[in-house]
Structure formats: structure tokens, C-alpha cells
């Protein structure tokens, strides 16, 4: 379940109070369990280190939307469709971009 930052902080406070309310013997059970898990991880992944793996995430593959294509069948820009002599048919962004290119303000 997703929760907001404030809810998460409140949950952490409650858990902290419950942890400190446990006796040393009860806490020792969890420390022992953590130690066993750590040993198991070291056996399964002997060369693993948090430092080496920090910030490494697998890139998510994006599903292509039905309208997305990268091939030549993609619709052409207004300039290519209508040409320079029919600028009144261009969309606003193409008109603005072309006027900037002509005036020399666009840098490559």
C-alpha cells in the first residue's frame, strides 16, 4: 500500500516505540535472524557490495504507444507537407521555430 511521507513518518514512530518496548531477549531474536540472513546473503552473493551496486537500476522498457513510430511512415512536419509558400497552413510551433531559424537565433 502506498502512503504519504507524513503517514510513513507516523508509521515509523509507532514501529520505533514498539521496538523499544520489546525486552532485550525479544530484540535478540530479531538480531539473530538478521545475522543469519546476512550470512545467507554472503554465501549466495560472495562478491556483492553495496558500494559497487549503489545507484544501479535496470532501465525500464517502455511499451510503445499505438501512435508512436520511428519509421518513415510517421507524419511529416508542416514545412515538408505544405512547403514554404503555404506557411499559413503550418501549425503554431512550426511557424515559431521556422521564424527563429530564419532570423538566426537558433544555434546548433
UniProtKB/TrEMBL annotation:
<keyword id="KW-0010">Activator</keyword>
<dbReference type="InterPro" id="IPR024940">
    <property type="entry name" value="TCF/LEF"/>
</dbReference>
<dbReference type="InterPro" id="IPR009071">
    <property type="entry name" value="HMG_box_dom"/>
</dbReference>
<dbReference type="GO" id="GO:0000978">
    <property type="term" value="F:RNA polymerase II cis-regulatory region sequence-specific DNA binding"/>
</dbReference>
<feature type="domain" description="HMG box">
    <location>
        <begin position="1"/>
        <end position="49"/>
    </location>
</feature>
<dbReference type="GO" id="GO:0000785">
    <property type="term" value="C:chromatin"/>
</dbReference>
<dbReference type="Pfam" id="PF00505">
    <property type="entry name" value="HMG_box"/>
</dbReference>
<protein>
    <submittedName>
        <fullName>TCF7L2 isoform 16</fullName>
    </submittedName>
</protein>
<keyword id="KW-0238">DNA-binding</keyword>
<dbReference type="GO" id="GO:0000981">
    <property type="term" value="F:DNA-binding transcription factor activity, RNA polymerase II-specific"/>
</dbReference>
<feature type="DNA-binding region" description="HMG box">
    <location>
        <begin position="1"/>
        <end position="49"/>
    </location>
</feature>
<dbReference type="GO" id="GO:0060070">
    <property type="term" value="P:canonical Wnt signaling pathway"/>
</dbReference>
<keyword id="KW-0804">Transcription</keyword>
<dbReference type="InterPro" id="IPR036910">
    <property type="entry name" value="HMG_box_dom_sf"/>
</dbReference>
<keyword id="KW-0805">Transcription regulation</keyword>
<keyword id="KW-0539">Nucleus</keyword>
<dbReference type="GO" id="GO:1990907">
    <property type="term" value="C:beta-catenin-TCF complex"/>
</dbReference>
<keyword id="KW-0879">Wnt signaling pathway</keyword>
<feature type="region of interest" description="Disordered">
    <location>
        <begin position="49"/>
        <end position="76"/>
    </location>
</feature>
<comment type="similarity">
    <text>Belongs to the TCF/LEF family.</text>
</comment>
<dbReference type="GO" id="GO:0071664">
    <property type="term" value="C:catenin-TCF7L2 complex"/>
</dbReference>
